[in-house]
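This section describes the prediction task in plain terms. A model, or a person checking by hand, is given the sequence of a single protein chain and must write out its three-dimensional structure as a string of C-alpha cells. No templates, partner chains or ligands are provided. The sample shown here is typical of the held-out split.
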Amino acid sequence: MLTPNIPEKSRKIALFIGGAQKAGTTSLKEYLGEHPDVITHSQKEFAYFYDDADFRKGQESAFKKYFHQHHPEKKLIAKNAGLYVKEEGIRRLYDHNPQCEFVLILRNPVERTYSAFQMESNYGHIRDPFEIMGEVIRTKDKSDWRYDFFIRMSLYVQHLKTIYQYFPKEQVSIFRFEELGTAPDKICSELFRKIGVRDDFQPDFSVKHNVTHHSRSVKYGRIVMKLLNNTNPLKRIASSVIPAGQDYKIGEMLRNVNRSKKKPEKVSGDILNLLTAFYTPFNEELQELTGMDFSSWNYPSQTP
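The expected answer:
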C-alpha cells in the first residue's frame, strides 16, 4: 500500500552505488531498481549527499524530490557516481545510515579516463585532443579541473581508503566493470541478498544505460548543458511545473537527439603507454588493499 506521508527522517537508504564515474553505475541502478521490493530514483544521480546546496535543503526535501513515491516495506537504493571521491559526502551517507551497503564498480583507469574525456568533449567542456592528458599528469596540478575530473577520479585506491574509514570492508562491495557486462545477474543477486530481498529476480539486462556516444554537434551539446544547468532561469521555471523526476527524462531526450553512431577517434599508443605507466602503482596498491586481481589494467588498452 502506497504511503507517501511516511516521515522522511525515518527512511533509510539500504544500498548506495557510489562510483566509479563512467563505470556502468547507471545501468546497475536501473537493474536493481526493477526488483519489485526495491525503490530507486528516476534521476540519473542522487545529489543529496554530494551536492552542498541539495544537502542544506534537508533530507525531507531530498526524499520528496528523489523518492516521491515510497512503500515503507521496500528497500531504498540510490546512486551518485561521484560520491566516492568526496569524503564529506561519504560521511553524510554514513551519518544517514551506518549500515548502508556501499557499492563500487571499478573500470580500467585508462578506459575510464578516456570515456570521461569523450563525454566532456561531447558536451563542449574541453576542446583539446586526448593527448593533453600527458601534460595534465606531468604537471599534477590539483587545481586543474582536468586533473581532478579525468585523473584523480581514476585513483581508486585513494578513495577506497577514505571509504574504509567510514564503512567496514564487509559493507563495501567492489565489482569490475567487465563483470557488469559478462555477469550482471551474479552482481544483482549478490546485492539483492545483501539488502534482504529475493535474490532470484532477473532484471532486463539487454538494455545498457548512459553509454557514452559521439555527438553530432558539440555546439548543440553546449546549448543543452546550459539549458539543463540548475542556475539557468528557464530550468528553474520548468522544474516548478514539471512533475518530480520528469525533468531528468526531458534532459535525456534532448541529449539523445545529439547522439551519433560515429566511432571515437583512435588514441595514440604513446598516450596509452604513458597513462598505463602512471596508473600502474595505484592499481598495484589497490590490488594489495582489496585482494582482487587488477593486473590486466597494467597493460595498455588498444581501444579505451
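For orientation: The chain has a mean pLDDT of 85.
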